Amino acid sequence: MSISSTRRAVSEGILDALEVDKSVVLVSSDSALVIKAQDIIEEYPENYVEMGISEQAAMAASAGLASCGLKPVYVSYAVFATLRACEQFRNAVAYPGLDVKVVGANGGMASGEREGVTHQGLEDIGIVRTIPGITVISPSDAGQVRKAARAMFDIPGPVYLRTGSGRDPDFWSEDTDFIPGKTRSFFDSGSDIVIFAHGFVLSQVKSACEVLTEKGIGVKAVEVATIKPLNEKEMLGHLHGAGAVIVVEDHNVIGGLGSAVTEFVCDNCPKKVVRMGLNDRFSESGSPEELYQKYGLTEKDIVEKAIKLLQD
Amino acid sequence: MTELKEMARLLRRDVLEMVMDIKDGHLGPSFSSMEILTALYFGGVLNLDPDNPDWEDRDRFVLSKGHACPALYAALIRTGVIPETEKFTLRYLNSRLQGHPDMYKTPGVEATTGPLGNGLAMAVGMAKGLKILKKSSRVYALTGDGELQEGIIWEALTAASRHSLDNLCILIDHNRRQSGGLISDVGGSMPIREKLEAFQISCLECDGHDFSDLLRALKDAESSGKPTAVICHTVKGKGIDFMEDENSWHKRVPTAEEFEAGMKQLEGVTV
Ligand SMILES: [Mg+2]
Prior knowledge:
The complex is a heterodimer. Chain A is an alpha/beta fold. Chain A has helices at about 5-20, 40-45, 55-65, 80-85, 85-95, 110, 125-130, 140-150, 200-215, 230-240, 255-270, 290-295, 300-310; strands spanning about 5, 25-30, 50, 70-75, 100-105, 135, 160, 170, 185-190, 195, 220-225, 225-230, 245-250, 275-280. Chain A has two domains: about 5-170, Thiamin diphosphate (ThDP)-binding fold, Pyr/PP domains (Rossmann fold); about 185-305, Rossmann fold, CATH 3.40.50.920. Chain A has a seven-stranded mixed sheet with strand order 3-2-4-5-7-6-12, sandwiched between helices. Chain A has a five-stranded mixed sheet with strand order 9-11-10-13-14, sandwiched between helices. The mean pLDDT of chain A is about 95. Chain B has one domain: Rossmann fold, CATH 3.40.50. Helix content of chain B is about 40%, strand content about 10%. Chain B contains ten helices and seven strands. Chain B has helices at about 1-20, 25-30, 35-40, 70-80, 120-130, 150-160, 185, 190-200, 210-220, 255-265; strands at about 60-65, 140-145, 170-175, 175-180, 180, 200-205, 230-235. Chain B has a five-stranded parallel sheet, with helices on both faces. A two-stranded antiparallel sheet of chain B has the order 4-5. In chain B, helix 1 (about 1-20) packs across helix 3. The N and C termini of chain B lie close together (about 10 Å). Chains A and B meet through helix 3 and helix 5 of A and helix 5 and helix 6 of B. The structure holds magnesium ion. Magnesium ion binds next to strand 4 of chain B.
């Protein structure tokens, strides 16, 4: 499996945006190098605002920049952008509906990998999802992140974009487009089970689908990269006729896509939903593979969960 | 100066009436900022167009101590940016005059503030943004003195200094008190000037209730060549004797008798 950097991809997406829109401004809390933004700093020094190590002030200053008509993108770690600067994200950015884009790196335990829990964004989606007015996007590989980072500037108002460690598995072919709000099926052998997923778990979901299909279980897998707002029409389509639902994500099982899908299914077409993710506990340091193994997000875990679900 | 004193008197009456009407709101903090706001809006400091509150070359005023918004609303009503008819909608349902300033709802309000410290950091973003846009507009942020206990204040000041934001003027309403009492008792000792100067902020001081002193400091701040703080020495509750330096008026609603007594003190007498 090839590996690319979703963090660097953010810089590339911002550069793509800067080519056509000089009002884009990169806001850093000593985090520009997190996305390897050296060329943005060199080519567009006027469009780079270094705030120093100060997530809260960087978030609030982004609001100030946006109020002047600029298009700030504040880059930080998922855990600090959504937890340390959470109040500023809510009150200074989301409540006035300002055009601020926030990028959170190390989204998920695998993305935080050996850094350990303090630097792993395990609740970021749950937090931003409960704040009104924030579009929440979690693309699944570097090619998608680059396109999402470009596309988010066309979404009015605040956007939260989740990215990874910089050593992230490629999933989609390079020419795959990214359209905010769209879901995308990446496996379809039947409707016994529909699996929704986002982020860097798509490859194990796909291989689990292959195993399940061999066992005679019809399964459909769908990427939901725009977690908020959910594309309700497409979700209804995917859920139509499905026997049961599994959600797989590298996030706490509380608050993330699993919760979003559960809420949606309860409201619209009640059926059994199983949420797979970090089971309301903290993870630890380790390689992505080791972490997924220990905390139950491997191909094998998904297969077992699906079989058990159909037996119940 | 007589006109400014008269304006401050009228604004204090407005604030007292508005708070009395809804029986909610912060009188003490509004009154200690009254001359500062009057100087900014009516003393020729802020370059604004009341007919076009979103004029892109305007100066910006951020009320970082957002709880003093009755004073800001009163000023915006008297400049004509907010219609007089909305005066008695403070804190009402469906009102544009929210309990804390809302830039989205209220014309003339530049930043959504109230969570202490955030306004100054937003003002830093604005000052930097205006420089990026090559505007000569200035940004004024009014903070409380207790508010300086917030960590984000010092993050913002570090960035203001790093970016040489000479278009930023930080006004500090130094009434020596915060919600829970004297700053020295609640937050601990606060050598404001020494701390600001250590953060490379140029410092000026003035009597925050004396217009000639205030306007002199605001003028000097324009030419300091650095981000500048004006430490305005004020009295919490200023203008009504039984509210002055009496911390219970941080957020207390007058009785009918207190309201009458307060209005009487603000009757034609300049403070
Ligand atoms: Mg005070």
